[in-house]
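Hi support team,

I've been running sequence recovery on a batch of backbones for a student project. Most finish fine, but this one hangs at about 90% for roughly twenty minutes before it completes. I'm not sure whether the input is malformed or the queue is just slow. I've pasted the structure tokens below so you can try to reproduce it. Let me know if you need the job ID as well.

Thanks,
M.K.
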């Protein structure tokens, strides 16, 4: 890239071959965003054309009304690149965690056959259009095959991240009322076999699940109940490799993915068929500049939206191979990820700032010998990327050659909505960039007025919303209204992110303005964590806050009021167990404090703001070797509204000790 002032631009060579190189695309899209999205939709294969492009009945809206399609037709037999062109091309490259195991590479044709076989198998199990299917699988080829097989027959998939606990699985299965769960015996993680079937057995208790389809992956011993367990290979073995696609209405439910919000219970984000497909295809094509010879490695698990859209659907809709990996990127050695890039000649690498900071911390020496000549483009997602991580990524991985697309979006948006385009730019470290063409955003102050340059406010989306934006929270219209359409009225989508805009129109994301923590790019809610901690019988009160973390961006810290007899260490251990059981090991706190009391207002509300200030100040001072000092009351804000100001003194002492 070329640097001009504090901005970066693509090189001439990159620009020359990029899909988009001219700023006029922004003007065109802005003039008539509805027409713009319609033109893109026209490039897909539809069974029936829509009657109306966009319909808005706030807070609900529809895209491509009465249009009919099936996403798998657009991936396989009617792929825009032509079926004859792509059927023998690589569709998926799977890298297992054990290095001695061979990768699995499937062509589009081979993938198609496997999808059809499973689709027929699912039909035999009684799965029909609109039925929900739970998918609790690790990153193995069958997870993508399962998603596509559901899509083929119009079943609504709910992928549950394999590192979520059985309890997290159970509440998702209960909410969706899924009758089928697809899982595996086990998988490899950091050299260990994780027994996934055991968690699945627990998770299906008190749900409607009638059949559990089990992939044999790790060959570990599993318990078996003939009444509901079935081996995947036995089911699909007998099935035909052809299956007609179910013709879906543009607004038929496509998938549900649960995510965390401000309150304890995860929300089932509902995406529909038409709009999502259009957005997944074109954001991938233009933002990652996907061409025939590219190989995309998006490191996200398909248990998160980034994996669903950019590990699975988007590359396949674009006829490009998608690489995915079973294990942790630094296992068995810190250069595993670098080895994978070189081995498979990855051209497009898309990861989270946490991973970048982790690689950076391992040191440049670890990757000295890698030239990364195949890389053309880098991406970042999930949390703000700080300038130093950006520069390291740019220099050490992209060799100052590759553009970095810092992509902002959410589970709710289905696809990327903000990032500068690689053939156009401009790019600026720590700034996500310009809204995607056809996307209207604004930054508003509390009164609903647009913020000035560099003034922080709330990021919102304006109509016509990008076609992939959520259509609802499953079975919870009230929550949909409250969460997204109440702060500024029913016509403005509230993102829950704080942001600023600079003089070039580039957007910088500051972070969430609600109680969501982004730890290692994973979305966790403090409410959900508090509910898990409160599950402990001796704990009556707790508060969870997110605090800055050098590697993970943010991390939870737990404060507990404990009046029982157990030792501090014992209580901490039990709390950790509860979090693991309720959510999973990804939600483990950075610190746990046992306290006498929590600062509260007279009406009984816990003042998390004060906890956050106390903690952040104490740790910052600690680093400056001034452990004795603690925040002054002035820094903490007005304490006079507290019912128990003495609790602050106790907290100062406890946190200061660390
Ligand atoms: C945050 C992940 C800064 C943001 C795709 C958002 C980001 C939340 C970025 C959604 C980025 C996502 N820069 N922050 N490039 N991308 N976020 O639902 O706070 O897991 O609201 O979707 O991640 O997280 P989710």
């Amino acid at each position: 890239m070329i640097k001009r002032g504090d901005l970066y631009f693509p090189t001439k060579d990159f620009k020359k071959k990029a899909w988009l190189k001219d700023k006029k695309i922004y003007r065109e899209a802005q003039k008539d965003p509805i027409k713009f999205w319609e033109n893109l939709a026209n490039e897909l294969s539809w069974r029936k054309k829509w009657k109306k492009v966009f319909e808005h009945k706030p807070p609900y809206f529809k895209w491509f009304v009465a249009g009919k399609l099936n996403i798998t037709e657009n991936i396989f037999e009617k792929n825009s690149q032509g079926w004859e062109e792509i059927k023998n091309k690589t569709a998926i490259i799977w890298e297992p965690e054990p290095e001695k195991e061979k990768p699995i590479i499937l062509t589009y044709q081979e993938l198609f056959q496997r999808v059809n076989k499973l689709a027929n198998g699912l039909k035999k199990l009684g799965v029909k259009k609109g039925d929900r299917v739970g998918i609790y699988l690790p990153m193995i080829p069958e997870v993508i095959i399962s998603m596509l097989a559901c899509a083929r027959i119009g079943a609504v998939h709910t992928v549950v991240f394999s590192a979520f606990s059985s309890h997290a699985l159970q509440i998702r299965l209960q909410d969706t009322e899924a009758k089928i769960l697809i899982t595996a015996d086990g998988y490899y993680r950091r050299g260990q076999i994780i027994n996934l079937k055991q968690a699945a057995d627990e998770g299906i208790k008190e749900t409607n699940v009638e059949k559990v389809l089990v992939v044999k992956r790790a060959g570990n011993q599993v318990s078996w109940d003939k009444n509901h367990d079935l081996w995947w290979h036995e089911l699909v073995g007998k099935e035909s490799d052809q299956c007609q696609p179910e013709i879906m209405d543009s607004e038929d439910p496509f998938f549900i993915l649960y995510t965390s919000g401000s309150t304890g219970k995860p929300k089932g984000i509902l995406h529909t068929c038409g709009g999502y497909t259009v957005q997944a295809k074109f954001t991938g094509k233009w933002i990652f500049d996907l061409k025939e010879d590219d190989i995309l490695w998006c490191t996200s698990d398909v248990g998160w939206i980034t994996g669903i859209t950019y590990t699975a659907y988007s590359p396949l809709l674009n006829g490009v191979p998608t690489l995915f990996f079973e294990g942790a990127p630094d296992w068995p050695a810190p250069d595993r990820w670098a080895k994978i890039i070189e081995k498979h000649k990855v051209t497009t690498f898309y990861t989270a700032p946490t991973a970048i900071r982790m690689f950076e911390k391992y040191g440049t020496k670890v990757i000295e010998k890698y030239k990364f000549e195949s890389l053309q483009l880098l991406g970042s997602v999930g949390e703000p990327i700080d300038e130093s991580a950006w520069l390291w990524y740019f220099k050490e991985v992209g060799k100052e050659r590759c553009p970095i697309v810092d992509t902002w979006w959410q589970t709710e948006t289905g696809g990327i909505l903000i990032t500068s385009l690689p053939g156009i730019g401009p790019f600026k470290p720590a700034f996500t960039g310009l809204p995607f063409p056809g996307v209207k955003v604004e930054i508003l102050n509390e009164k609903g007025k647009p913020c000035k340059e560099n003034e922080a406010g709330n990021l919102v989306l304006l109509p016509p919303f990008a076609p992939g934006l959520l259509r609802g929270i499953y079975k919870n219209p009230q929550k949909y209204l409250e969460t997204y359409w109440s702060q500024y009225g029913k016509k403005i989508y509230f993102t829950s992110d704080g942001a600023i805009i600079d003089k070039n129109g580039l957007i910088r994301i500051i972070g969430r303005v609600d109680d969501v923590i982004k730890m290692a790019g994973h979305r966790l809610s403090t409410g959900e964590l508090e509910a898990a901690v409160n599950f402990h019988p001796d704990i009556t009160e707790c508060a969870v806050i997110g605090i800055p973390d050098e590697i993970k961006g943010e991390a939870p810290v737990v404060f507990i009021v404990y009046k029982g007899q157990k030792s501090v260490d014992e209580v901490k251990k039990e709390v950790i167990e509860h979090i693991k059981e309720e959510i999973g090991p990804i939600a483990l706190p950075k610190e746990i404090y046992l306290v006498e009391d929590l600062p509260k207002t007279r009406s009984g509300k816990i003042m998390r703001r004060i906890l956050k200030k106390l903690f952040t100040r104490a740790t910052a001072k600690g680093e400056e070797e001034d452990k004795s000092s603690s925040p002054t009351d002035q820094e903490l804000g007005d304490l006079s509204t507290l019912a128990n100001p003495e609790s602050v003194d106790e907290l100062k002492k406890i946190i200061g000790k660390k």
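--
Follow-up from support: It reproduced on our side and the slowdown came from queue contention, not your input. Residues 259, 304-306, 381-384, 406-411, 432, 495-497, 509, 511-512, 518, 523 surround WTA (CB under 6 Å). No action needed from you.
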